[in-house]
Amino acid sequence: MQNTKILAALMFGIIGYWAFSFTPDGEATHILISETAASRSDGQNLAVVFKIENQGAPDRLLAVTSSAGKAVLLGVGADGLSVPAGDTFLTQDGAHIQVTSDAVLEDDARVPIKLQFEEAGTVSALIRYATP
Questions:
Q1: How far apart are alpha carbons 119 and 114 in whole angstroms?
Q2: Domains of the chain, CATH where assigned
Q3: Do 106 and 14 touch, CB atoms closer than 8 A?
Q4: What is the Cα–Cα distance from 114 to 68, expressed in whole angstroms?
């Protein structure tokens, strides 16, 4: 009986480890996106800003896409945005993302984006929209 309990606990531990070790679509687990905001910078363009918390080795943000419209990374060189370990902020007066979309958005709507990092791969985020 004792051996059965030990075996059951061991199996649940292994299954639990496996379930929490993988993320959908192979997305990075050491890149966290927070403090998100999107607002209209003019008629069709959304300025998207947020904090990137890199809990791993230095990386580089290479590209961005969005199902909400055409997305581009602005305020960075041709080789992308350097993302050292720690916090990196995308701001309207610095590096940021612009999404061109004529969709009508209500306050607190979510704008989906996918960030492509050189080492970490793809990271998805939902950016909160607010009327300026």
A1: 15
A2: 27-128 (2.60.40.1890)
A3: no
A4: 11
